[in-house]
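User:
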Amino acid sequence: MLLRMNDDQLLRYSRHILLDEIGIEGQTRLLHSHVLVIGAGGLGSPVVLYLGTAGVGRITLVDDDTVDLTNLQRQIAHNLSRVGQPKAESARQTVNAINPDVQVLPVSQRADAAWLDAAVQGADVVIDCSDNFQTRHAVNRACVTHQKPLVSGAAIGFDGQVSVYDSRQAGAPCYACIFPPDASFEETRCATMGVFAPLVGIIGTVQAAEALKLLMGVGSSLAGRLQMLDARQMEWTEISIARQAGCPVCGG
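Assistant: Predicted structure:
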């Protein structure tokens, strides 16, 4: 049975509750939800902040890195006093300073296949904010295995992309349908190429919005649609994508 909101919660989340599509029922769903966030950097920062302010009850946040001075140009969950601290713990402190009711579990380790297999099972939605293909594919495989919706984003330079991979939907693709694990992609990192600071905020905020919609059952998700942003021109491009019969992860 879902617990009722107290007076403080009714006040804190009143602007959500006023929306007909959300109301008390939708907000209560958020309060009883568990989201797994992979990465507490540029994308993970706005994601975890919006999940926390929106009232997601439990957030597991995994990142094996520590806060560096170069992160502060775009990773808004961290500050100068936390340089050298684990990013997951730093982000937890930021969220709890805004909304202490949210339970943030910081995990300071790499999200490898074995860890993901156990962690994904207990999540309602998984959000991939990692910065490398190996982790993205491992997250995708775990989500397909456990039939969990995956909200995936990426950003580098002035270019970003975001989509939802929901293998619960017939015909919806997984991440590997678009980016095959055996394909050769040039791995680019912001440490060498750079990234436009607001870009990660834009993409991360879209990721948070898609996750919240999935949790509350509001609207339609980006499943089957890949949105790409050219921030130089502030131009969005969307392409429709379908499940690939030959996909080694979800096909057939």
